[in-house]
Amino acid sequence: MSRKYYCGDSSEPLLIRLRNRLFRKPVPLFPKTVVIETQSGCNAGCLFCQYARIRKELPHGRMNDALFEKIVRGCAGRPVERFILCFDNEPLLDKGLAGRLAMVREVCPGAARNISTNASLLDEKAVETLIASGLLTEIFLSVNGNTKETYEKAMGLSYEQTFANLDNFCRYLRGHPDVRKRLRVRVTAVKTEHVAPELPEMKRRWEGEGFEFHVIAMDTRGGQLGRDNWRHGGEGKLAPNVNCRRPFHTFVATWEGKAVLCCVDYRREVVIGDLVRQSVDEIWNGPVARKLRAEFLRGDLSNLPICRNCMIND
Ligand code: SF4
What region does 184 belong to: left with phi over 0, alpha with psi -120 to 50, or beta? Predict the structure, then answer.
């Protein structure tokens, strides 16, 4: 299980400890990536995502300012490489996103500030507020399809609206090389049977703009994705997600202040801490997180039901 990390258990046999030292990395003392859901809710209905199916079961609301500030200040001076201000939500639905990015910039200036958005709300005003201002240093665009038919089937959003935004965004960046230089742009697509035939053209299009283009293998999202969804994964064979590294470098905070195991745990099935009472440091290095990570590495998933059902398309 996750052959990249080790937990540093001194009771392990010498040979295991030696192997770890030589071939694996210790779990970092502080998360490299901090994911914060500033507000719940998504306006899309993607084939590869469980959100639309389970949205009624989930708690909804917006993280209060005091809790957001507490989390970010708890990361000050620590080696966080990236803040991602979204979880299972569409981040541009949060009208206060700019203020929150500004706080991250002030408190943790060395960390990248990232969102992953479906771009349906990335209009001229959002480009001005978030991109021109330098509040975002990275933007990941989830764009599944190159044609209207495929895009609307895969994401349930208006092709015309999103692609008008993307055209405007590209035009803006072409006209502002200074902004472009300091912004990382990545277009991501999940490999479903619908999108697969369009991937070569998408790669040409987005790399032609100078963006990264990244194809993600479809997974069952900790078993939370319905069969109706994951059957769109195409011909690949589903296999257990044994090499998952997420709980070893990324910390995930839900809007109401729960720390959950990973960024597919929308249902909050494995809660590792409570940010209202605890700090990021206390939770990351606390007994619950340490025990679960050690169990994961041993392949003992008895306390990790979500991982037991997490399959990825080979
Ligand atoms: S459910 Fe478990 S295996 Fe799947 S992504 Fe999350 S941590 Fe990794």
Answer: beta
Residue identifier of the C-alpha nearest atom 6 of ligand 1:
262
pLDDT for position 9: 67
With 0-12 / 13-18 / 19 or more C-beta atoms within 10 angstroms meaning exposed / middle / buried, residue 203 is middle
Is the predicted pLDDT of residue 8 greater than 90, yes or no?
A: no
Which residue, judged by its Cα, is nearest atom 8 of ligand 1? 244
Q: Which of 150, 139, 138 is nearest to 199 (CA)?
A: 150
In Å, the largest CA–CA distance within the chain is 61
Query: What is the mean pLDDT of the segment spanning 138-142?
Result: 98
The whole-number average pLDDT for the span 66-87 is: 98
Substitution candidate for ligand 1 out of 293, 300, 307, 312 with most atoms within 8 A of CB: 307
Could you tell me the pLDDT band of residue 250, with boundaries at 50, 70 and 90?
very high
**Residues in contact with 201: Cβ distance below 8 Å, sequence separation at least 6, in sequence order:** 146
**Statement: residue 2 has pLDDT above 60:** no
DSSP secondary structure letter of residue 212: E
* Residue 261 CB–ligand 1 contact under 6 Å: yes
With a 6 Å cutoff on the Cβ, whether 301 touches ligand 1 is no
Mean pLDDT of the 104-115 span = 98
Report the residue among 261, 295, 308 best suited for mutation to probe ligand 1: largest number of ligand atoms under 8 A from its CB.
261
Closest to 136 measured CA to CA, from 168, 111, 165: 111
pTM here is: 0.93
